[in-house]
């Protein structure tokens, strides 16, 4: 359940920024989460609900943009979307570990007032 | 209608519900002339017009990543090669490190940081290998973070140390996301856990530089399908080197120790 740590880090970032911008309330937090970031959206939401209690984000909505994995085949010099956890190039069938997208765990923006 | 106090005649775009805790002069002209009795408290809900977006676009783990880079710089300056050893609970990380440190004792000066939720049992075991050992008890935290390592380093005497092994909390999920500043990620899985472990925990295996199959002395008893396990590791983590070891009988330990010494030379050559 490292989602609690993740949410806490995200809230530290959010509160810091909201405060420096003179916001009194956070209405929404927009996250980008990659398919291979290792976090579970349901667990994030659960951690979010408990960590925001009694804060300026207590009524805030957590909006998660789910980002799929994109790999790169060094042989074909081409990107591809893997079907599952085995990252095999659809052209040359070579396995790759080069990941171009999917590890994201980013706080994109806040909606505040 | 003003939704805080029920008054009407509010210019368009200024409708709010708020606790009146904020100063009324900020963007809030209130162009009406009746009294505002406010002896009650209510929620501070603001409608769209007052909402604004703050763009951030920052990694949530950026703080950890920065500290990890700082640790990495410290290790490089000191000439220390660092292993982050990861596995599920009971895969044999402690036994493996005990044996590794004992075998390398005459050739390398080593230190160990060991993370567990509670107890210093592993630290006590590891001290017998002659290495300096620091225990981090994380309480309820299921993984080690770069900051915990930075704090542990302050208590260690690392002059002359060439190898630092970090035994992470037994967990094949959460520690995957946290860079500690290591040179090598060592993912251990034992023959008793089944050949499909890499398929079940792909995120962790995809971060591995080396996968160690441990407890191979038990392979026959548990009818471990070696070929299938090697195939599964390769499918999920084609980048990872694979070694098979037994901390109990010493099988494979020589190759593993040799690998450590080679990686140490490589990290110092940079």
Structure, explained:
- The complex is a heterodimer of chains A (113) and B (270).
- By secondary structure, chain A is α+β, with helices and mostly antiparallel strands.
- Chain A has helices at 3-20, 41-51; strands at 26-34, 61-67, 70-73, 78-80, 99-101, 105-112.
- The longest helix of chain A has 18 residues, at 3-20.
- Chain A is elongated.
- Chain A starts with a helix and ends with a strand.
- By secondary structure, chain B is an alpha/beta fold.
- The longest helix of chain B is centred in the first third of the chain and has 17 residues, at 62-78.
- Chain B starts with 51 loop residues before the first strand and ends with a helix.
- The relative contact order of chain B is 0.14.
Low-confidence stretches of chain B: 1-31
Most residues in contact: chain pair: A-B, 39 and 41 residues
Low-pLDDT runs of 5+ residues of chain A are: none
What percentage of amino acids of chain A are in beta strands?
25-35%
Radius of gyration of chain B using CA atoms only: 28 Å
Spatial strand sequence of the major β-sheet of chain B: 4-3-5-2-6-7-8
What letter string, H or E per element, gives the SSE order of chain A?
HEHEEEEE
Order of helices and strands of chain B: EHEHEHEHEEHHEHEH
Strand order within the widest beta sheet of chain A: 2-1-6
- Summing up helix and strand content along with how strands pair, one would put the structural category of chain A as alpha+beta
Number of distinct beta strands of chain A: 6
Mean pLDDT of chain A: 94
Can you tell me the overall shape of chain B? globular
Number of helical segments with 4 or more residues of chain B: 8
Helical content of chain A (DSSP H or I, runs of 4+): 25-40%
Helices and strands in order:
The complex is a heterodimer of chains A (113) and B (270).
Chain A: H1 3-20, E1 26-34, H2 41-51, E2 61-67, E3 70-73, E4 78-80, E5 99-101, E6 105-112
Parallel strand pairs in A: 1-2
Antiparallel strand pairs in A: 1-6, 3-4, 3-5
Chain B: E1 52-59, H1 62-78, E2 81-86, H2 93-104, E3 110-116, H3 121-127, E4 132-137, H4 146-154, E5 163-167, E6 184-190, H5 197-200, H6 202-206, E7 210-214, H7 226-236, E8 241-244, H8 253-269
Parallel strand pairs in B: 2-5, 2-6, 3-4, 3-5, 6-7, 7-8
Helix pairs in contact in B: 1-4, 2-3, 2-8
